[in-house]
Design goal:
By secondary structure, this protein is α/β, with parallel strands linked by helices. It contains six helices and eleven strands.
Length: 208
């Protein structure tokens, strides 16, 4: 099965204080860490969307940047994995887990997710309305894998914005399942997240 990866590295990084895809983690830029992981996983084609060497210019929204990446994917590709460069601790093992589930061939999309461990409340302003049943909730990550045809169709048919591509496929009636994600595959959103990622890499190196 031929697979491609689209790595989105075009965000403005408002909460981070500026673009973060070129920030270095253990002396490697965030976007490059994602590329290295997909290379190591044996991905057939890797498309980077963002202001990086060899990258494509991104769009005004995340979904626009993904669409730009999809347009560059080889037509004989069966499955495409969409990944945010802001998740630089992605592992080959996680990529493989998502891909292996997609090989079953019974769904349109596969997403990694982790259980919600904190108590969740529904609120209105400062008022707490109710406690939400967290047993039916998960925290979603990338990379998310999709049949290339299904994701292209979703982008063409759905012009609404979305925080991830799975939402667009879901709105078109596509079938999406989840596999276990990785708690350390968190998103770099604020500068403190970079400190945490650096600490985790140092700890991992010490264990080796």
């Amino acid at each position: 099965m031929r697979t491609a990866a689209v790595i989105v590295a075009a965000g403005s990084g408002t909460r981070f204080g500026g673009p973060k895809h070129t920030v270095r983690l253990a002396n490697v830029e965030l976007w490059q860490r994602s590329v290295d992981a997909f290379v190591a996983a044996g991905t057939d084609q890797i498309v980077v969307v963002g202001d990086v060497p060899g990258g494509l210019a991104g769009g005004p929204r995340r979904r626009d940047s993904v669409a730009i990446g999809l347009a560059a994917v080889a037509p004989d590709t069966e499955w495409v994995l969409i990944h945010d460069a802001a998740r630089p601790l992605i592992t080959v093992e996680l990529i493989a887990r998502v891909r292996e589930r997609s090989l079953v061939g019974d769904v349109d999309g596969v997403i990694p997710a982790i259980p919600v461990t904190d108590t969740i409340k529904s609120v209105d302003g400062e008022s707490v309305l109710m406690t939400v049943d967290r047993s039916t909730l998960v925290l979603v990550q990338t990379p998310q894998a999709f049949r290339l045809s299904a994701l292209r169709e979703a982008h063409s048919a759905d012009q609404l914005d979305a925080t991830d591509d799975a939402a667009m496929v879901e709105r078109q009636g596509g079938s999406v399942v989840h596999v276990m994600g990785d708690p350390m595959n968190f998103k770099i959103t604020v500068p403190e997240d970079l400190v945490l990622a650096s600490a985790w890499l140092r700890a991992a190196a010490d264990r080796e």
